[in-house]
Design a protein that fits this description.
94 residues, mainly alpha, Arc Repressor Mutant, subunit A, 62% helix
């Protein structure tokens, strides 16, 4: 699965604009996403906002105050982590 090019904070900001009354078409145009992506994010993340909004904001503040987040992987570690099963997915056209 392809990693998103938007962080959770960016997604939350985009969704907050929609909650503030900015038209969805304008938000999507400026962010460079489709309306389907916007509504998928809304379905996925808006439910979580109401449940854990305070915990997420506290955790984010604590991490930024501490000077970081989780440690970064070293070079080559991701390739080993992705290949845990010993198989790699190959393109269908190969």
């Amino acid at each position: 699965m392809k990693a998103s090019k938007f962080s959770d904070a960016q997604k939350a900001f985009i969704l907050k604009q929609g909650n503030d009354g900015v038209p969805v078409a304008e938000i999507c145009r400026k962010a460079g996403i489709s309306q389907a992506t916007y509504f998928n994010w809304k379905k996925k993340y808006d439910g979580m906002r109401s449940q854990s909004q305070e915990a997420v904001s506290f955790t984010g503040h604590a991490l930024s105050a501490a000077g970081g987040g989780p440690p970064h992987k070293q070079r080559g570690q991701r390739a080993r982590d992705d290949n845990v099963c010993g198989t790699r997915s190959r393109p269908a056209f190969a």
